[in-house]
Fold each of these.
Amino acid sequence: GAKALHRAIDTDAYEVRQHAYKALEKIGSRTSLKYFIKGTKSSDVDIKIASFKGLGKTKSSLGRDIIIRQGLNSRDPNVVAAALDGLGNFSRKDDLETLRKFLKSDVQEHQSGAVRGLGNSKIPESLDILSTAIGENPGLEPEVIFAISKKKTLNATLLLMKMMQTNKNENYQAIIQREINLRKAYGKYAVVKTNSATIRKLPRASSEKVLVLA
């Protein structure tokens, strides 16, 4: 598939190239690296956006460098958002601060890109940042729900179940319920008997202690 798309970019007309880049981004193969690099210099914004997202999926050091040097410094907020989306795929701790910084930006596109980047990251701390993002910016709630849904860990499932109980929006509840059903995280209960139980701030064993119940 990628080879056919490469040929389309090399030989076909403008509109075909645009759609070929979008399809290449979905595949995210490292064999497309040179096409993504070329695409970041395109005058077509859609090609540029697909290229920065695709660079992240290649997980190449060169791609990350281009994302940081060029994508994050773009004057187009949609390109910056795509670069943040791609950056999250590298799952590096030193990139979390970058994503956190853009999450607090006043630019909506930057916030959305940071949320998508955190959703792509496999670092456990990315889930902690997403879990606090809604409290700081309720308008990001639907995007945060989709970002958390991309994570298939037990911690993500527990957080979705917690959000299901606290969320008042029926549409968002339906989205969360569908994801919980797909994970088969329903109808399973257990009674745990213990001399003490620790209440933690976040649904992770290493999270900050809030209270110990005897």
Note: The longest strand covers residues 209-213.
Amino acid sequence: KVGKVIVVDNGSSVETRKGIRGLEQNASGWISVITLTENLGSAGGYRAGIGRASACSECTYIWLLDDDNVPAEDALLTLEEDYRKLCRATPPERLAILCMREAQGFRDFARTPGSFERLMPGSSSFLFFRVQDLPGGLIRLMLKKLKVLYPAGSSSRLLTVPYGPYGGLFFHQSAISTFGLPDERFFVYFDDTAFTLGFTL
């Protein structure tokens, strides 16, 4: 039920580029390809894709997916449903909603109130690692080995987080006028953090 697909070819090989172009030619305008002659990293790639989508009259809403994301069959319908509910309290130009990866344990976190500290990396961390978190991490590892589960809290599927990844992010086109495009100077790593922080600051 997606109206248009914009694919960013971020400096791929010649053979891959041919395949992507073949998809575009056979899709009767449904797929649009942006070809970048060099790899601009995730920041440059997403900047190009979001920029194209924000200028597209058919793209009222923008749903970002990474090259390794495989959404569940009902993911988009669920996002739209929850987005409409949240729009009652937050204007669309300031709202983003995100579908998280089940494999990373986000479903369990969403059921445990106040647990986003374990979901999102803290300050002074790199790729979720901080020296001061080692004791707590060891305890959680032991509890996991012992099959001790965290107590279930709210059954809501919605969890407020301070920032998130590009993959799965859903927002209204008007948000780009408010927050701008990703900063290509990041190239890769934490460019999505900087971009999504705009929605919560």
Note: Residues 75 and 112 are 22 Å apart (CA to CA).
Amino acid sequence: HLVNHAERTYGKWKLGKKRVIRQTKQLGLREHILFCGDQTKEFDHVIVVEDDLYLSPHALEFTRAATDFYLTEDRLAGISLYSPAFSEISFRPFVPHHDEYDGYFMQQSSSWGQVWSRDQWNKFRSWYAENLEFDFEKSDMPWNIKIWPKTSWKRYFMAFICDTGQYFYYPRVSLSTNFSEAGT
């Protein structure tokens, strides 16, 4: 049923095999993202795109190039498809320094389209398993991240990045966006 609806809405999938996983219960955002990342047990990389995101036609090409180029970078926690124009930490416009490179690094995780390799996800999952009771109040994170809800997967991923000195790679030009539509 889901596959037929998707094909009627978006056209036939032409990029290889497709598997639809239908959950029997609502997982909530944190558990859903953890489930998606855990797909690296089967695949070398996962691209997580929530249902309210719109992707550039160049997103897959960018993902392939970035994952190939940064394959052995130990301090990389993930790759973003989004290039933020606003800082969710400082609540100010964000404009990265323009140089000759296609992307930049930030010690901040992305949630509007992200890519994880098996190794990157395993590092996070190991940290997460040891830090389920992480004391956000005692961490050296910005105050507004400390108060994100417990349902937030990104809160834990940001703590992981800060705690382990990891970075996310961001494209200079965004390859994803959303239109602030309500969703779950």
Note: The longest strand covers residues 76-80.
Amino acid sequence: NRVNNPHPLLKKVTTPVKNDRVIGRYPWLFGPAGSGKSTLAHQVADALGLPFYSVSSLQQKYELEGYSDAVGKLVETTFYKAFKFGGIFCFDEASTSPAEVQIAFNTAAAQLLYNFPVEGMVNAHPDFHIIAADNTAGRGGSSTYHARFELDASTLDRYCFVEVDYTDQHDMYMADNDAEFVEFIKAVRVAIKAGNLTYTATPRASKATMALVKCGFSEKEALWMGLCSGWDKQDLKTLQNKIICPATNKWSKIFK
């Protein structure tokens, strides 16, 4: 529920979005999977009363700008609609798009003018705003998020970077206010890092686990399916030994 659960960074991101023409840069939200980046971008749109458009990991330029169909009519994209009519355009997984897409997008972002197929040159609507989101800050992959391009300096210079990390508020919301589960999932994250592993223990995993319990699965089945069913058995043993959680924590006992 975006309305009843505003992200703690909402004001910090909304302000530069409203003033991006003056600042000359756009927000780039970066942080781990499930930290609420896309939700935050959507909340900015809600706060400004603007339509929200989002794309993820475009691989071809036509996916961004559209193309001419068999009768010569422009097949419109979400980018075209946001650019021409106004709205928040969230470029999700921004560093996973190749150079062809990045160059086209950077041209539009820099000039606020773009040559679309069929229609030709279009000026950006005054209420067209960009928010980029990614697991990284555009400087190449990491051990956990390795499928990322390293963007050039001129591209990165168009953004102001805002780290979006896990928060207690978001963790509690996604875990259906189960403080014991939040305590456990935070301990799992610490153990993953200590073990130099590449798994994630995200708020989405918390939400899935809680939902599976409500669907009738046992807590053990729900934890397995919601969090770690794809993890290596040896890695699971490593994590069992590294998780530091109170002995009374129900979820830690189930995991071990």
Note: The two ends are 33 Å apart (CA to CA).
